[in-house]
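User: Quick sanity check before I run a bigger batch. Here is a single chain. Can you write out its predicted 3D structure?
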Amino acid sequence: MNPITTLEPKPKSNVVVSWTGGKDGCLSCYRAMSDGFNVTHLLNFRDTKKKGSHTINPKLLSAQMQATGIPSILTDFVSYEQEFKKVVQELNDNNAAIEGAVFGHIQTHDNLVDRICNDLGVKLIMPLWKRNSEQIISDLVDSGFKTIIVSVKAGLLGKEWLGRTIDHKFVRDLHRYNSAIDPCGEDGEFHTFVIDGPLFRHRLKIVESEKILEDGYWFLDVSQFEVEEK
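Assistant: Done. Predicted structure follows.
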């Protein structure tokens, strides 16, 4: 199954979005909605046995998803693939009529998501697939999303990058620091969290946080936040 990169949906075609809280899934969701898809649910899957570079305070992530106003499902998993298929199948058993799944992948994991969508019999939608990383960052900022860095790979980026807002100066500053780092962090150099943007009915404000080194990554451990009116 070839991923859909140039989107030609039927009017109001129902889709779900794979959501981690970061820029890629968020921008992909926005693009899918802009192209006429009806996003019925945001899906987040959490591996409770492993703390990785994508780990976000569950309360913060839940508040972020609620701030979009889109129905959300947050669930734990042993197998991401099995849990994703189970959730979509259950939605369709309850007449959700899901016809596609949106993923924020740029260069990796296409075999996994292709297999998931094939087994479910739904369209694979990857709006950012094989796109230029610098252009993605430019589109993200131009679209009005406010995104911060919440984890960095120690040895490549210092803890001073934690909490940094991704703006039009970000790519230039990143290249000056280390030109080998992909502007989207596609090789796991850093991970992001979106706190505001055109998808959001409310914005998030980080009030208290701590920078923690764990398993080779610096994390911005957010302990207190606020949800603000826009």
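DSSP finds six helices and nine strands in the chain.

User: Great, the batch can go ahead then.
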